[in-house]
Structures are given as C-alpha cells and as structure tokens.
Design brief:
The complex is a heterodimer. By secondary structure, chain A is of the alpha/beta class. Chain A is built from 13 helices and eleven strands. Chain A folds into two domains: 259 residues, Alpha/Beta hydrolase fold, catalytic domain (Rossmann fold, 3-Layer(aba) Sandwich); 81 residues, no CATH class. In chain A, strands 1, 2, 3, 4, 5, 6, 7, 10 and 11 form a nine-stranded mixed β-sheet that branches. In chain A, 51% of the residues are buried. Chain B has one domain: Porin, CATH 2.40.160.20. Chain B contains one helix and ten strands. The chains are: A alpha/beta, B mainly beta. Strand 1 of chain A pairs parallel with strand 6 of chain B.
C-alpha cells in the first residue's frame, strides 16, 4: 500500500494536461534544462529568461500556465548554475568576470536550439525579468538581436549606474511624499555607520550620496529602497496575485528539483551575485551606450512602483535602444517588481498584443 | 528443583547464529516520490550477542553485527534525470530481543546520472546535434539509517522488513555538491 501511495504521488497530474517536452542544452560543462510547455503548435515560443542570478524559471509557471500557455509555447530555461540546471564545471569558469558573457552565449544557443527543435520558421520571443533583463540585454549587445522576433523586458536593468540613479530618485520622490503626509519609516536603516530614522533622514542621505560610487553605498541604498518601497506598495498597488501551485507540486510531479534550485541559488549567490561586494555581477556596469543596434520590437512591461528596478530604468532603456518608436510597447502596471505575478491578466494581455503585432 | 533446571537452561543458552548473508530488495524513492528500486547483499564481518538478564523465563539476546555489502539501485525523476547507483556500503545493525532492527550505514557509489529528455550539443561549426550520450559519471557517498523487524513467526525468522531514510551526495554538481534525500522501503531475507 505504501509503495502504491508513493508511486501515485510521483505520477501527479497537476502540471499535466498541456503539451510539454524537456530539452537540454549541453554547453561548456552545463546541462541546462528547457521545459517547453503550452501551445507548441502555435509556432510561437516565449523564452523565459529568469531572474536571479541563480533564480529559476519554474517560478513563472503559475503565472503563465492558465493564460499565455494556451496561446503560445513557453520555454522555461534554467540558466547555467540556476534552477534545476545540472552539469559539471569549475568555479574558475563561472565568476563575476566571465559568467555574464558565457550566460549570454548560452542564451544565444538556447534560441537556436529551439528553432532547431521546432523549425526555423518558429517565431521566438524572449521575456526577461529582473536579472533576466540584464542577461538578455547582454545577449542583444554581444550577439545578433535578429535571432529574436521580439524582446520583452520587465523590471530589469541595462545599467547598474542608471539603476542606482533611478533608485535614488525613487527614494527622494516617495520619501518626500512620506514627509508631506507625516508618515514614518516602518523600520530604521542602520548599516555601516549610517543611521536613517525618518523619511527626512532618507532624503538627506540620498542628497549626500548621489551618485552612488561605492559598494557600501549600494548596501544602504538597497535597504533604504526596500523600507520606502514597503510604504509605496501599501499605498499605490492593488496586486491580483497569480494563484500559487499547491504545496509540493513541483517537488512531486514536475521535472523541477527544488533542492537543486536551492543549492544553485545559494552557490550562484556566492560566486557572482554577492551584492555589495566586488564579486557581484550586478552593480557598477553600463550597456546603455552599446544598445543602438538593437532594432527588433521591444516591449517594456514594468511594475511602476518597484523599488528594486524603478521606473526610471524603463525610460532610460527605451531611450537607449535603436528600435523605432512604433515597434516599442511601453506599459506600466500598478505593481512592484513582478508585474507578471502581481497583475497577471493585464500583463498577459499586453504580451499577447505585442506578440500578435510582431509574429 | 524443576525451576532451577529451567533457569540453568536459560543461563547456558547458546545465542542464535548471526546472519551471514542478507539480501534486501527495496523501493527506492529519491525525495520519496521519484520511483526506483534497489537491491543489496550484506555480508556480516563480525557479530556479538549479549544475553539480556531481565528475561528469566527464556533466553533472549540482543545482537550487534558489523557488515559490508554491495548495492545496486536506480530511479527516475521524470523530465530531469535517471539515476543509477552501484557501490559498496558498510555499517552496523542491531537486532533487539524482540527482533526489531536498527541500522546505520555509510556508502560510496558510482552514480551515473542520465538526463531525461532530448539533449542537444553544439558542434564545432555551430550546428546542433541530438546526442545519445546523455549521462555523466559522478561519485556519490551516502549515509543512511534504518529501522525494521525480523518476522520470527515467518520462514523461521529469515524474512524482515525495513524502512531506511538516507541521503546520497552527487559530486560534482555544477561547481558544488547536491544532496539527494531518499527512502528505501523493502524486505530483507537471510540467505545464510
């Protein structure tokens, strides 16, 4: 009886009822899984470029499985050393100096692999979220953007420096509103000798730390942005969250390995994503001057109230690319960092409109 | 007088012969639910029986055995990988007077991890090809603890059951190590 119970758990149907296939790209020591789900016959694929670095693509399955998967195939790609990706390579081959370009090369190959598998006439769009925008933009800069039929970017950046400036602007704007309304910080920010107790202290700190040029400043700014963001979300957003999967679904009835996700995330965090230290891949860099050759259709679908990658980054991204204005979709949502999760219906509708216009 | 003779019989009782060779066959569930099977043979290196004085009506012993063995197992995590383990294990097993078993063991295995999907590799000219070589060789040390019971009323006590949670470690996994918790649920049989 126990064996039968175990076998039945392992054959769970929760994520089935849709076309699906698991592909692997084996490249330079990594075996990266690409879980292709949804309407494969549509000949349109949306490649998910997940956040992190070191996050996972399966986190977005609940956002897409009941809407966009009906219309298109969604390719949930786990990046090298992220999600359930496997393999064997040295940490010398994966550090803050070389991982970014290597992962952009992986992305180029994943796009080509999808066409190899589903036909050269298949339309491939990519959607990047958070770190996925940084990675996708690196791909667009280093490789041929025309490999994609369109690029959808949500709450990620093309420049660490512009991200810092936008976050300072975010803190100034909303801290001033808090001052005007007599609101208090939910918690003080005390790090590295800095003591920020009130919204006015926050304003003073930003005025004394603009531009951000030091690692210690990024630490304080990040934390302060989170504290201000908590007030902003409570006052400005009305999230209609995606319904999460039942507990254990991914563990027991999917190709996903939550243990691998945890190990990859922790390890990648140490190797390349260690914020506020020189080994971080995500701080002082700038692609904004190298993006004019990007002329493919681009959708910038942004959570307007995000404190992590604030809306100022979206405006700069739009102004940095060479895509003609008529091929740019630019939408904001009453959401924070994850519009696909916080406003899933509106987000999916815009993705659908963008793809139908450019497929 | 009769009572004294019976007590002397208890004191002079000979402990049961230790299991020399034990076969066990188990359901092997990686994270419980990724199904597989395993089989192992354990050989007892040494065994020590201690008579329990608290039992005065008849002789009872607890027995501690040190063993080494070989194990073969496999499982499938659908859409992720198929795992094959072949290795050796060593441990200690204690059988109580009431035939309950408690065991602990360490293992070291060759772990063949085969991707469960269509695998593409990039050729030198930039083209793709689907490869049939989907596996990678790994090393997998392991640790497990088990409980179980011999069934003294069945097959002269040669048959038993066990539940054995454990974890094996996939080395290497990307740039690090990946633990794989598992559970074995099965039967063991004294061959000799």
């Amino acid at each position: 009886m126990l064996l039968l119970a175990m076998a039945s758990i392992s054959c769970g149907e929760v994520l089935e009822g849709t076309e699906q296939e698991v592909l692997f790209l084996r490249h330079k020591g990594a075996d990266m899984n690409v879980w292709v789900r949804g309407n494969i016959d549509s000949k349109v694929i949306i490649l998910v470029v997940h956040g992190g670095a070191g996050g996972n693509s399966a986190a977005y399955v609940p956002d897409y499985k009941d809407n966009l998967e009906h219309d298109y195939a969604i390719a949930y790609w786990d990046q090298r050393h992220g999600g359930s990706a496997q393999g064997s390579f040295s940490k010398k081959e994966f550090n803050h100096t070389n991982a970014w370009a290597l992962m952009a090369e992986d992305m180029m190959l994943v796009i080509k692999m999808l066409r190899e598998r589903y036909g050269q006439d298949t339309k491939v769009f990519a959607w990047g979220h958070s770190w996925g925008v940084q990675l996708g933009t690196k791909f667009l800069v280093d490789h041929d953007p025309e490999l994609l039929d369109g690029w959808i970017a949500s709450n990620g950046t093309h420049s660490g420096n512009i991200e810092h400036a936008s976050r300072n602007a975010y803190i100034l704007t909303y801290a001033q509103e808090m001052v005007d309304e007599g609101a208090e910080l939910d918690e003080p920010v005390t790090r590295g000798g800095v003591d920020i107790q009130t919204p006015q202290d926050a304003i003073d700190w930003v005025n004394a730390n603009d531009p951000i040029t030091e690692w210690d400043q990024t630490d304080v700014q990040w934390t302060l942005g989170g504290v201000i963001g908590k007030w902003v979300y409570a006052n400005y957003t009305d999230p209609r969250y995606t319904e999460n999967l039942p507990p254990g679904t991914l563990l027991f009835s999917s190709p996903v390995s939550p243990i691998a996700q945890g190990i990859n995330s922790a390890r990648t965090g140490t190797l390349i994503n260690n914020s506020y230290r020189e080994t971080s891949i995500q701080e002082f860099w700038d692609l904004s001057t190298e993006m004019k050759h990007i002329t493919i259709p681009v959708a910038l679908l942004w959570g307007k109230y995000d404190h992590i990658i604030p809306e100022g980054v979206a405006y700069s991204y739009r102004d940095s690319i060479g895509t003609p204005p008529e091929d740019i979709m630019f939408e904001f949502y009453d959401a924070g960092h994850s519009p696909e999760y916080e406003q899933p219906d509106a987000f999916a509708e815009d993705v659908r409109e963008f793809i139908e216009r450019h497929r | 007088m009769a009572q004294k003779i019976a007590r002397d019989d208890v004191l002079l009782a000979i402990p049961p012969a230790p299991d020399q060779l034990v076969l066990d066959v188990s359901y092997f569930g990686e994270v419980i639910a990724h199904p597989g099977m395993s089989a192992a043979i354990d050989y007892t290196l040494s065994s020590k029986a201690v008579r329990l004085a608290k039992f005065t009506d008849r002789a009872r012993f607890k027995q501690t055995s040190w063993f080494v063995g070989g194990e073969l197992g496999g499982y499938r995590h659908r859409g992720n990988h198929v795992g094959l383990l072949l290795g050796a294990r060593a441990g200690v097993r204690r059988q109580t007077a009431r035939s309950f078993l408690f065991e602990a063991m360490l293992g070291a295995s060759y772990f063949h991890k085969r991707l469960d999907g269509t695998v593409f590799v990039v050729e030198d000219d930039g083209s793709f090809s689907e490869t049939r070589i989907k596996g990678r060789p790994k090393f997998a040390p392991s640790i497990a603890f088990g409980i179980g019971q011999r069934l003294p009323w069945f097959l002269d006590g040669a048959l038993g059951w066990h539940v054995r949670p454990g974890v094996f470690f996939e080395i290497p996994f990307n740039t690090t190590v990946l633990p794989h918790p598992y559970v074995q649920v099965g039967l063991n049989y004294r061959l000799r």
